[in-house]
Amino acid sequence: MAEVLALGASIIAVIQAAERIVKVCKYFIESVNSYPSDLRLIYIEVAAIKANFESLEFVEKHDREVSAFLKTMTGPGGPFSGCLKSILELEKLVPPGIVPRGSKTTKRRKTETLVAALAWPLKKETARALLSDIAHYKSTISNALSTEILQDVKDMKRSLKEVTQQLTGMSATRVIRYWLNHSDSSPNHNAACGLYESGTGNWVLRTDEWKSWINLKYRCLWIHGIPGAGKTILAAHLTEEIASLESKQYGAGIQQTSRNRIASVYYYCSHARNQDEAGPFLRWIIPQLCRKVDRIPSLGYNMFMDGRQPTMNQLLSLLEVVLSYFLTVYVTIDAVDESQERQNLLNILVKLASDPRFGNLQLLVTSREYADIKAVMSKISRPLSMSNPHVEADISVYVAAKVRSTSKFRHWPALLRDEVEQALAVGAKGMFRWAVCQLDILRRLREISKIRTALENLPETLDDTYVRIFACVDEHDWSLLRHALRMISFHETIYKDNPKLPGVTKDIILASYSAFTLQSTAGTQANVDHLHNSDSLEEICGCLVSFRTRSWPDTNTAWTGSASLAHYTVREFIESGRCAGGPASYFHNSPGATNHAIFTSILRHAIDATHQPRSKWFLDGIEGYCLQTATVALAPLETTITDDSALLDAVMDLLNPLDRRYSIRMDSLRALFHTTSFGSVIKGAIREPIWDLVWISAPEDREIGALTTLCFGGYMTLAAQVLSNTDLSTLVTTKISVCFPTKIVKSGKMDFKGSPFNLFAECSHLLRCGDLSLRLLYRSIVAGPLPRRIRPSTLLAKHYSGSFWDGLHVGYDDRGGSSVIEWLLELGADPNPMGYRVTPLQRMVQRGDKCAVRALLKAGADPNGCGDSNGAKWCHETTIGREDSQLHGHSPLYIVETYREFRSSVAPLPPTVVNEIKNLLLKAGARPFKLSNLEIQEGVSC
């Protein structure tokens, strides 16, 4: 505790001494034309120290623990004591009575006093030496102030190059898991390993291509094969072989260093994720390598603190740093052909295989032999084809093993089993998948004559094979099988942005079959019309669907029966014209039509929900699944919804706060979201949780209620569609009362009363999608029909959004576009609108929006404008109204220099932002002042 008090006392002492010096220098600079240039240097350096220590004072007061780094800084000879000593020495060079007291002193008398006092007790050399010391101490302290929090740094000499302990209360592993990881490939690897048959795939290890690659003779090995050749299972086997090299090194007890450390990582592209795999590939292998050395590069830490998703170039730079921890890194990437827009992934592979920065990376790639892939891979890799007798021999081994180990084949006569092995080994023609499917067809047959007939008439292609599989399914089970395939497809589409989430379960498939399919065709009694269970579902789906046990991320909870299409070729076939126009047309899946139909059913059940889900687990019941999925689907199905007025109408029913079931729905969503298992993985699929918007007083107009909720949630396409059919005047005249949580306001909650327009005008800076909502409303109002059109200058005067430094809100400017302020200025808004008690520049300075400040000054905003004393003012009960009374009469430079008194309800700005805004204002000719009480007149209330 003594250390904390000593630290606090040191900080306050530095602030007070710095403030005295700044006042003296400032007064002297303003009063004497030919002031010594050293005073300007003293003013700038000491003002920066003061700002730094004010931020440090805030952190020290609100952090419960003082890090080891801060403790060393407060010791004798540390930067705190050194800085304080230098500041006090510098203060001695400025006589305490230099500033004349009283307001009646003439300017001439003030000048004489200053000249007399400064008969240069400010010794040049002494002052410059002290400034040099202060700059050194400031540089040391700034290392701790460059992030939002102070952390436990054990080795200051490395200046945060390695963050190996803790980061804001989370371990380095958790930081990577929740931020960097995107697509978890371990389930794919584990599933492929589970399907591996011992003794197969070893032919690769005997080839010259493999031996040369594993011994670093060349950097990339490309294994290619036809669809169904077993590339994924082979990749898993080879990955395990490579991993054994790593295990041997650890097992030998060899000390691991960057000079001898080897590592093996993998990534599996998947059609189920329906995504461009370039970014997820890098975002998976980088943290895997970091875990192996228990280390995070400072570059990765800085990217995390930046608060934005990393770019491809940033990821490649981070990978380069991580690779420096190893002698050799082997990377396996499977199924490149299953990546969407795979040219992006191919470009990454080219860089990894040819750029000298990644010279210690060995790349193993598997894919189909498509022309675009071949054109790229032939230039950077050594190819190895799977069309060879070794694969056919492996298929024989696999078929023999399955026939002998599967219970349904075990009771067959030995001669019949031999016939199956021989026929499938010959007919497979290098396709493992073909052999798997034939076994699934044969196991469904019960008569030896039919089995032998099937063996004599084996289908030649995978398409023909799938047609035969569907034909083998009992016609009474067709509807269930089709529903299962479509539910899997729908689920993967809706949750594609969060691939960590397990697939739809058997229980949900069966429950939705009753609720959606049977009920819609046979009435409410159909809920109990079938006796299917999870076992019969798995039997019917056969080799078309894989059911796995998946674990929730970061929990010990296993989820059984997580369903996915068994192979890429299944999706290709059921979505193809070949299926639509052939004998299996009943099972054809058109993703657009499927998504529309299933979402309609899910939406209907979500709206009709009259009680909370029975279980806290998202996938444990149809009620929770429909409610949560209806909300998550709003983003990926925005276009589908806007194209169908009936669907849009149903969405407005779902989001209507006057509906008596609305609170039940939101309470249920809130409960589901805050379960450890679901909330931790669904955040990526939710823009802004709409259940956080609590309605205290809802509007009578359903469209206004739904529009407000959509804007709050960031569903701009849907909001725009609703807005196009809404009377714009109601946005201003309708009164609502809501509250929502926010980390920016100290109370943790924002209470609002007013119109929907004012909600986003006042609070857009508190919401992740606030600027999007405000821009949408502005665009509609500015371009709206007369007489409801509002001038851009009026909107600019009332604009209240700002880019906050804490990462909770990022302005458009940071994404390469223009901010709302810039957009309004481009529309012709006057940067100095008349008739308002606060100018846009004053408000943006108070908000700390340096980009808006820059844009306003560039457009000609008055840097010394204090607002119109007779102008209209907001109601004092509103947030803007309360701030208007504070800001009016204070110049922008005065506001930024004394910003703490204008930001009492929110966190202080970082020193860097304060200094940037201050410099912008000074360059524009700003002066710090405030009007007297007599000069400030009350305006007309609006």
* Helix fraction bin: 40-55%
Class of the largest domain in CATH?
A: Mainly Alpha
**What is the oligomeric state here?**
single chain
- What is the level-2 CATH architecture name of the largest domain? Alpha Horseshoe
Beta fraction: 5-15%
Instruction: Give me the CATH fold name of the largest domain.
Output: Serine Threonine Protein Phosphatase 5, Tetratricopeptide repeat
For CATH, the homologous superfamily of the largest domain is named as Ankyrin repeat-containing domain
* Domain tally: 4
In total, the number of strands is 12
Low-confidence stretches: 1-5, 147-170, 521-528, 800-818, 938-942
From the alpha-carbon coordinates, what is the Rg to the nearest angstrom?
Answer: 34 Å
Largest sheet: 5 strands, parallel
Mean of all residue-level pLDDT scores: 79
Terminus-to-terminus distance? 52 Å
Overall, the morphology is globular
Strand order within the widest sheet? 4-5-6-3-7
How many separate helices? 44
**Structural class category:** alpha/beta
Keywords: Repeat
InterPro entries: Ankyrin_rpt-contain_sf (IPR036770), NPHP3-like_N (IPR056884), P-loop_NTPase (IPR027417)
Protein name: Nephrocystin 3-like N-terminal domain-containing protein
What's this entry about, in short?
The chain is of the alpha/beta class and 942 residues long. Helix content is 54%, strand content 7%. Helix 1 packs antiparallel against helix 2.
